[in-house]
Structure formats: structure tokens, C-alpha cells
């Protein structure tokens, strides 16, 4: 208890409090602007923290991280443009809700879900973090391989109306993920002697093109000269109806647990947590066909899941020195900038700093309700009132600026345009885009893990199934793939029975 009391007194100083408030608002802004992301913002922030107090620097990191993860939901709901990679799943039901005139409701659910997921994640970091971190010691390359395969299979099968197209999209993402230097052998693959391809295709560049450009092109097709009126946008305060919060509680609880579990696993991330949470909510629903058509449960699951990953990803980073995602790696960099060594000894050598950072992750999650719900959401929501003829060039400029500043390469603009054209055509063919992005994320993880596992087992593939956790994950993957097949056979059998009875 003294551990957190001393840390709390340090956090409640003026510097950390002002830093948390300002950084959370800045994070919402960054997440709401397509092309910008928390990784970019925190990476640019790190050089500025040399002269800062460590608690102030970490307060800014926590605020930008939590704020941007919620801020990504604003364009995802209003424009079907995910502000961050973790907001892709939010578009599935958030944008249909906005089209039905329920934008304010979707934004409120996203705000509350983000805050609840972040609070649950911070509490996990503060209470059972060291205990949960030990569980990751039982995960080897074989387990990470099956986690990656299960993630791709679940999204490929569950997203979209045709599982075959979903699996095809996941395979396309796998192919895109192979571009660049092979991290195990050092060989260049599919680079066509182009130096800029040696590092592979930049995920954010492809994401912006694949997800942000098609809606802009569709908006340009409509040639909207008026935009939405204030009455159509309906962004006045919308209270929760009686029993609505009670109906969301199971989704919040389930998604928080999934997000925390995914966050603890190094190399996963909020995008995986959001997809798995969304799929779990869809499977648990009595009306699964309503998902993708404006079901509030889909928004709640996606936003709660991706924010529950935030603080949980710091568990292996702070206790073992193993970053759970890119942002956690940047946090480790911030600690080392100030002469601190992440790992088990960090809790004994700098208890006030570690406990203070945990409290800052908790407080910035609470600030999402105040900053996001009261100010930033309404401000950024008004972008839909702009006529389409003004909105299209404005979004294109933001996309181009955001993509260019990532690496400072003009060629990234051409990659974005190519990905956007491909995404536009694939949508016309009803091919889901989410499995492509997840294939790019999980493909390298699956490839490197399975090759390491085979090296350890001296080429014996049976070893991938002999470990208990690997066997469970493999069985879950098989069940996920066979589930739509069994469902289709069941429908066919029922149809034949009805025809025979007739």
C-alpha cells in the first residue's frame, strides 16, 4: 500500500497533472486525424523528454497513448476512416450507426467503452501485473505461431458475409507481409531491387490507403454540395436508456479480459484485441446477423478491447523488459533515456516512478470520459457537417501529410494510392479489408515463430502440437475454421427437411 501512496502523492503534483490533461487532449486530436497515430506522436515526443522530470514525461506518454486510442474511434464512426489501426473493428458497426442517425450514441458508447477498457487494463497492471507476466514465460515460438494463426482464421471467417473471401483476404495480407528483409536469414524478398522495400511495406501507409481512401472516393462519387445539417448529425447529449448500460456490461467485462490477455502477450496489440473482442461479442450475441449493420455491442466490444490492451501491454515491458507492442517499446526507451533499466529490479529501485506511471495510465483513462465526452468528441464530430466537395480534398491533404511525415519518402504516397485503389476495387467485390491488415500484422509473427519452433525441434513439425497450450490453440483454430462449414451444412439440412415436409 505504501508503494502506491508514495507514488500517488508524486503524481498529484502540478506538473504530472497538467501533462496528463494536455497529453490526453492532444492524444484525442492525434487519433482523430487520419494518418496520425500514437506511435508517431510518442516517437516525436521522446527527444523532448531529456530535460523533463521522468513522471512528467511518462504522464505525457500515458495521455497520448490512451487519448489517441479513443480518438481513433471518432473518424471511424463518423467517416468510416479508422484513426488508428486498432479502430478498424470500430468501423464495422460504428459507421452504420452514424448512417442511421445514431452518431452521438455510437460516440458515447465508444467513449465509455474506451474508458472502461483502459481503467480495467490499468487496474490489472497495478494489481496482478507481475503474476500475469510470469504466465508469458510458458509461451514459446510454437504458442505464438498458433496465436497468430488463430487471429487470422477468426477474422477471416467472422468478418464479411463470405468466409472464403475472408480467408483469401487474409492470405493476401500474408503475402504483403513477406515483403522486405527476412529477419532470420537476412535475405531480401520481393523487393525488386528497390531499397525502400527492404524494410517491408509500412503498415500505417497501407492502412491509410486501404481504409481511408476508398471512403473518400465513395464520398467524391456522391458529389455532396451541402453536407449534413446539425439536426441530421444529432450530437446533442444522448443519455443511456434504461437497461442499456446493463446490456453492455457483459460485453465490457468480456472485452476487458480479452484485451488484458492480448496485451500481456508480447507482439500482439490493440488491433488483435479489438478483432477478438468483436468476434467474441458476435458469437455471444443472440442476434449475430445484426453485427456489421449498426449493433452498439460491436462498437462497445471493439473500443473496450483495444483500450484494455494499453496498460496490459506494459506488464511484460515493466516486469521483464519485454515490450508488449511498439508503444511499450517506446516507454522502455523513455525509461532508459532517464537512466532506468526496465526489468524486475525496476520495482525495487524506482518504486515511485513505476507506481506513478501505473497511476497515470489509470487517471488518463478516466480523463477520456471528461476530455473525450465533454469537448473533443463534439468538436471533431462537426467535420461531417462540411460539404463533401470540401471534405474530400481536406481529408486527402491530411492523409498525404500524415503518410509523408512517417518516413519522409514520396514513394509512400504512391503506395497509399495503390492500396487505396485496391481497397476500392475489393470493396466493390465485397471482399473484406480487415483480414488483409491482420495478415500483414500477424504474418511475420507466424512465420518467424514457426521457423524458430522448427529450429528448436530440429525440423520436427509434431512438436508444434505436443505442447499443451499449442494443442489448445490449434484445436481452437480448427474449430474456428470448421464453424462456418458446420453452420452451412446445418442450414442446408434444415432447408432439405423443409422442402421434404412441403
Would you kindly provide a written description of the structure presented here, covering whatever features stand out?
A two-stranded antiparallel ribbon has the order 1-2. The model has no long low-confidence stretch (mean pLDDT 79). The chain is mainly α and 502 residues long. It is 73% helix and 1% strand. It has helices at 2-11, 14-32, 38-45, 54-71, 73-78, 88-99, 103-127, 129-135, 141-158, 163-177, 203-222, 230-233, 244-264, 270-284, 296-312, 314-320, 326-337, 346-349, 351-381, 388-407, 411-428, 434-456, 463-466, 468-501; strands spanning 180-181, 188-189. A hairpin with a 6-residue loop joins strand 1 and strand 2 (188-189). It has one domain. It contains 24 helices and two strands.
Topology:
Elements: H1 2-11, H2 14-32, H3 38-45, H4 54-71, H5 73-78, H6 88-99, H7 103-127, H8 129-135, H9 141-158, H10 163-177, E1 180-181, E2 188-189, H11 203-222, H12 230-233, H13 244-264, H14 270-284, H15 296-312, H16 314-320, H17 326-337, H18 346-349, H19 351-381, H20 388-407, H21 411-428, H22 434-456, H23 463-466, H24 468-501
Antiparallel strand pairs: 1-2
Distance N to C terminus: 71 Å
Q: How would you describe the shape?
A: globular
How many DSSP H or I helices? Answer: 24
Largest sheet, strands/sense/barrel = 2 strands, antiparallel
User: In percent, how helical is the residue content?
Assistant: over 70%
Strand content: under 5%
Q: Please provide the count of β strands.
A: 2
Work out the radius of gyration: 22 Å
* Residue-averaged pLDDT: 79
- Enumerate the strands of the largest sheet in spatial order, edge to edge or round the barrel: 1-2
Unreliable residue runs: none
The class by helix and strand makeup works out as mainly alpha
What oligomeric state best describes the polypeptide chains here? single chain
Domains (count): 1
Order of helix and strand elements from N to C terminus? HHHHHHHHHHEEHHHHHHHHHHHHHH
Amino acid at each position: 500500500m505504501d508503494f502506491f501512496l508514495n507514488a500517488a502523492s508524486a503524481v498529484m503534483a502540478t506538473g504530472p497533472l497538467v501533462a496528463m490533461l494536455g497529453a490526453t487532449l492532444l492524444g484525442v486530436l492525434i487519433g482523430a486525424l487520419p494518418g496520425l497515430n500514437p506511435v508517431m506522436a510518442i516517437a516525436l515526443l521522446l527527444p523532448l523528454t531529456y530535460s523533463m522530470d521522468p513522471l512528467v514525461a511518462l504522464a505525457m506518454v500515458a495521455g497520448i497513448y490512451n487519448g489517441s486510442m479513443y480518438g481513433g474511434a471518432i473518424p471511424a464512426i463518423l467517416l468510416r476512416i479508422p484513426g488508428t489501426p486498432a479502430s478498424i473493428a470500430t468501423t464495422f458497426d460504428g459507421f452504420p450507426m452514424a448512417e442511421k442517425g445514431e452518431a452521438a450514441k455510437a460516440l458515447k458508447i465508444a467513449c465509455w467503452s474506451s474508458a472502461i477498457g483502459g481503467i480495467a487494463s490499468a487496474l490489472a497492471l497495478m494489481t496482478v501485473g507481475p503474476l500475469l507476466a510470469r504466465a508469458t514465460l510458458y509461451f514459446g515460438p510454437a504458442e505464438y505461431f498458433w496465436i497468430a494463426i488463430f487471429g487470422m482464421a477468426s477474422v477471416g471467417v467472422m468478418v464479411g458475409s463470405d468466409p472464403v473471401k475472408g480467408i483469401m483476404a487474409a492470405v493476401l495480407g500474408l503475402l504483403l507481409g513477406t515483403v522486405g528483409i527476412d529477419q532470420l536469414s537476412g535475405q531480401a524478398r520481393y523487393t525488386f531491387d528497390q531499397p525502400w522495400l527492404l524494410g517491408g511495406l509500412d503498415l500505417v501507409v497501407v492502412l491509410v490507403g486501404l481504409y481511408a481512401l476508398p471512403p473518400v472516393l465513395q464520398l467524391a462519387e456522391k458529389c455532396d454540395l451541402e453536407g449534413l445539417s446539425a439536426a441530421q448529425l444529432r450530437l446533442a447529449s444522448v443519455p443511456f436508456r434504461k437497461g442499456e448500460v446493463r446490456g453492455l456490461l457483459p460485453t465490457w467485462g468480456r472485452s476487458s479480459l480479452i484485451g488484458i490477455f492480448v496485451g500481456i502477450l508480447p507482439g500482439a496489440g490493440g488491433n488483435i484485441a479489438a478483432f477478438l473482442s468483436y468476434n467474441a461479442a458476435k458469437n455471444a450475441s443472440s442476434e449475430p446477423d445484426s453485427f456489421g449493420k449498426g449493433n452498439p455491442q460491436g462498437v462497445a466490444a471493439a473500443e473496450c478491447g483495444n483500450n484494455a490492451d494499453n496498460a496490459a501491454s506494459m506488464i511484460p515491458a515493466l516486469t521483464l523488459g519485454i515490450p508488449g507492442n511498439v508503444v511499450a517499446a517506446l516507454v522502455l526507451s523513455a525509461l532508459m533515456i532517464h537512466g532506468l533499466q526496465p526489468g524486475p529490479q525496476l520495482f525495487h529501485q524506482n518504486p515511485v516512478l513505476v507506481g506513478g506511471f501505473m497511476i497515470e495510465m489509470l487517471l488518463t483513462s478516466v480523463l477520456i470520459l471528461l476530455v473525450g465526452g465533454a469537448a473533443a468528441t463534439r468538436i471533431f464530430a462537426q467535420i461531417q457537417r462540411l460539404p463533401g466537395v470540401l471534405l474530400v480534398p481536406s481529408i486527402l491533404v491530411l492523409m498525404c501529410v500524415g503518410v509523408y511525415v512517417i518516413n519522409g519518402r514520396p514513394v509512400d504516397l504512391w503506395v497509399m494510392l495503390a492500396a487505396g485503389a485496391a481497397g476500392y476495387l475489393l470493396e466493390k467485390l465485397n471482399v473484406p479489408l480487415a483480414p488483409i491488415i491482420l495478415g500483414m500484422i500477424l504474418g511475420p509473427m507466424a512465420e518467424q515463430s514457426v521457423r524458430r519452433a522448427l529450429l528448436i525441434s530440429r525440423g520436427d513439425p509434431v512438436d508444434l502440437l505436443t505442447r499443451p497450450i499449442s494443442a489448445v490453440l490449434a484445436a481452437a483454430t480448427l474449430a474456428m475454421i470448421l464453424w462456418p462449414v458446420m453452420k452451412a451444412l446445418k442450414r442446408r439440412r434444415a432447408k432439405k427437411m423443409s422442402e421434404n415436409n412441403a
